[in-house]
Amino acid sequence: MEEVRNHQVILKDYVNGFPKESDMLLKTFATIPLKLPQDSNGILVKNLYLSCDPYLCLLMSKGLVGSFTPGSPITGFGVAKVVESGHSNFKKDDLVWGLTGWEEYTIITTPETLFKIQDTDVPLSYYTGILGMPGMTAYYGFYEICAPKKGEYVFVSAASGAVGQLVGQFAKLTGCYVVGTAGTNEKVELLKTKFGFDEAFNYKEEQDLDAALKRYFPEGIDIYFENVGGKMLEAVLLNMRVNGRISVCGMISQYNLNQEQGVRNLSSIIMKRLLVKGFIIFDNFDLYPNYLEMVIPLIKEEKICYIEDVANGLENAPAALIGLFLGKNVGKQVVFVARE
Amino acid sequence: MEEVRNHQVILKDYVNGFPKESDMLLKTFATIPLKLPQDSNGILVKNLYLSCDPYLCLLMSKGLVGSFTPGSPITGFGVAKVVESGHSNFKKDDLVWGLTGWEEYTIITTPETLFKIQDTDVPLSYYTGILGMPGMTAYYGFYEICAPKKGEYVFVSAASGAVGQLVGQFAKLTGCYVVGTAGTNEKVELLKTKFGFDEAFNYKEEQDLDAALKRYFPEGIDIYFENVGGKMLEAVLLNMRVNGRISVCGMISQYNLNQEQGVRNLSSIIMKRLLVKGFIIFDNFDLYPNYLEMVIPLIKEEKICYIEDVANGLENAPAALIGLFLGKNVGKQVVFVARE
Lengths: 340, 340
Prior knowledge:
The structure is a homodimer.
Chain A lengths: L2 E3 L2 E4 L12 E4 L3 E3 L9 E9 L3 H4 L16 E11 L9 E7 L3 E4 L6 E2 L16 H14 L6 E4 L7 H11 L2 E6 L2 H9 L5 E4 L6 H8 L4 E6 L3 H10 E9 L3 H4 L12 H4 L3 E4 L9 H13 L7 E5 L4 H7 L8 E5 L4
Parallel strand pairs in A: 10-11, 10-13, 11-12, 13-14, 14-15, 16-17
Antiparallel strand pairs in A: 1-4, 2-3, 5-6, 5-8, 5-17, 6-7, 7-9
Helix pairs in contact in A: 2-3, 5-6
């Protein structure tokens, strides 16, 4: 039976607190037979692109639902090509996206969880981003939770990231006024010049976030798309308008702390009748066909754009993942694994 | 023209931080003609009961929408009888409830804001409580925001208060499991023996609120009715179940601080997909007829009860109001002003 090399990114051991690059290991001596086990209902795929997402670092801790297994490859979203199928929904050479392993080849035993890629007239890596989980996150968190109206004031944190860049563009398409924040001047420029945000600022250069928000939103904020938490949320709460909505997608500023920061100003939730709604997009993929129907024409007509930061090769995946928490990525962080 | 005595409770001056009893003054030398000014479209009422509500203390600060005017009587909810009417909706001897003054007689220039009391077969003071603003608050905050289902786990803070005692009883009527917390053992007893809470505890006797909640809710909390904020909210967030709902009615533990406490564990909002919704019941009185239709039969059939703590006379109103923040009241704090 043909055996091929199968480089893997392994979790060395459960992580206490925040992971480091060295908590992962590139295992270079693994091989895999290019054949499904007999009677398998799964599929064997060749991984093409892998997605770096902040939640992956949470799953390196022990005892969470979905925690990784030390010694085994990280699992996350990716784009892959079917090498062999034991499942009637898939055939050789189909392109799919969904949960796969951080390795060159993966046997997926529950292929029902995968999406078959229909439209290949776009970059395949988009299925880790605008056409995948981050895209759905922006779509659901902005349209479904925030129910935006034309003319409303929208604020996006981590605005140049995988999700934020889309929220900003969706908001502009809705006729909102949009301000984004990011952590480098390069990203701030990108927000204004590439993604069409009305304004943007570098939060690291602001002494007083409340004052910054008052400058950019003299009328206050109707919709806040929350990606960071902590002090930014504290300042945002002071600047929300009556009947404002906060879509709580992530709190990346808090994930690498032993104990979360306390957030003040929660009484604004009462005074301003705020809606604060957390979500995990895995619950909402029933809306995925609706989203594709909306977004694919926008991509093809160039009414929306998407920036990716592509790390080249599995060996660079650990650094790319940790880099998310250091703000190193510009746009969606992807790992290129192999050509088709 | 007949002039009568009109004792008034006056705000002496704007308050910085938390008010004291001495920030209010009983003005005993005021009088009022028992006659409306000519061409008035308002009504002249005799005040019978006044409602002590925490929000009143907020309005003693300068610069808020609805801030009181120093030198003038406090305004708040009350039950009153019409002495003379210049408005076609009202006639002499009608009983009304709504915004009135902390004084013996008040001229109400916008009587459209008042509710005419139709059902007088219940204690009139109930219109400051179960049949008034706190009742609507419990109804809207529990049924409309939390959408409770039979068998769900409900936690209520400030549970023996004007609103909490009703939320607990509504939850039992819905078939939920309900635990309440209060700040004295007397109140805790009342929750269990009088209001039918399944369990109750004195938060002042718990070293570790998280541990207490884990003891009372081994399965976690589906619905939290938030009246207090701060450390209790921080512990509740750790104990919410997936898809839980938090109705944010008040944060009384935070109102008397110069700066709010920071609240940790907000990332639970994401992980547990929580809905957190603040509200101010003044926005939702369109549902008042529905509420009365539901609650009046419950009162008459003794399927629900309501405890009031009645201060006797305007001169005791300032202490009664401040007492809310010291947990002195057992049940809804009312001020009796005069017989009909």
